Amino acid sequence: MGNWVVNHWFSVLFLATWLGLNVFLFVHAFLSYEKADKYYYTREILGFCRRTLRKQLDHNLTFHKLVAYMICLHTAIHIIAHLFNFEHYSKSRQATDGSLASVLSILSHQEKGKESWLNPISSPNMTVEYVTFTSIAGLTGVIITIALVLMVTSAVEFIRRSYFEVFWYTHHVFIIYFIGLGIHGIGGIVRGQTEESLNASHPHRCAESFKQWDVHDSHCKHPQFEGLPAESWKWILAPVVLYIFERILRFYRSQQKVVITKVVMHPSKVLELQMNKRGFSMEVGQYIFVNCPSISYLEWHPFTLTSAPEEDFFSIHIRAAGDWTENLIRAFEQQQSPIPRIEVDGPFGTVSEDVFQYEVAVLVGAGIGVTPFASVLKSIWYKFRHADHNLKTQTIYFYWICRETGAFAWFNDLLASLEREMEELGKVDFLNYRLFLTGWDSNIAGHATLNFDKATDILTGLKQKTSFGRPMWDNEFSTIANAHPRSVVGVFLCGPQALAKSLSKRCHQYSSLDPRKVQFYFNKENF
User: Fold this and answer.
1) Which end is more exposed in the chain, N or C (fewer Cβ atoms within 10 Å of the end residue's Cβ)?
2) How far apart are CA 338 and CA 88, in angstroms?
3) Where is the FAD-binding FR-type domain (predicted)?
């Protein structure tokens, strides 16, 4: 028992160190979650590196979640270790057997004005709850634990998707978490023997003769203890400074004036905004954060850019998918009122930037998930118009899966223009696209069947006929693998997780074991 009391804080210190390391990583993960500029620039710097290395940057959200889980795990172990320690402390303070533990527990509590105590429970009647809520370490520990629970529980997918405002505001409790973490160790509840006392009364020499402490002919004196210096602030200082700098930079950029040049209301309650901003420069597939102060000063929502880098404006398509988007669409629908002011931060990089690095690209969009590929397809149209000979991509397969027919109207004009352009240039095989309708009834299907022999699709007006149901991915991948037996194929998805698992599985399944033959690389948009 005596040796346990002398070394009682080892487990807590060890776990606190691991917890500090995970918090350090968490701040960096939070920066990656916030999509700081450094993420985009790092992708650019690594542009000459191997594809697999660059792809790791696109798992920033996975990294963010993994570190958060590790923080939760180590926090739980850290709290349990404290509970065991306080249980031992309480028993040691109440002990009357004259053991080393009981002697160490009453040190300095007998002498007022001294801070040489080891046991934070100063009297036999003091409870663990009292120490918890009256000490700096205990109180801040409770606060940051509650903050962590709130952040984790509000970040589950159901709440994040259905009640985004709850997730958004609750996640910013991280400010309280980091402040509490920074001062958590100031109270000095984790203590160690002073250097002077350690030299005079080393535990290895004096622990066994504790009953002779302070006897006039004894070489051992009562040990003196002091609070160990706080360490947690060291783990968070550098990343917090970086985070503050990044927020200041983003605030400065968001205050730059945005001019809305065109507003278009598409079917299925989809709003298109075309905008201009001084110094704005983008690449295909990138996205921006959008804020509308008249709706909420604090909420910033990510939207993929649907315009091409070659255009003299940038645009986004916004689908009604919650209170914020519904209020924004309603505000633009009111023609008599002035156009709402929009603030923009970005653009930020995504996996779709790499689409032109592949010989063959497979683009899969589900519903509004088509937006990053609209930018890609527009850019292709411009590259062909200007005879860009640096285009590495030889073939593009485009799959668009929608629940309702009205959604196809968003980019019908674009797809029709690409059809004509490919025909005029004799590159009909360059773009192979398929449209799939998953929400249909017998009337729609019957109408399409009766008009199947017509030159254009009855639903979209395009030459490519709409398919009913979902793609048979095994057939699609097998066809692509046979058509391009020695190509590197990039598969890009903006859609649900279930579809991501299916496509990722088939990328592994249809990639050849021979690295010289067809290889499929899966890429998914993460927000």
Assistant:
1) C
2) 68
3) 247-354
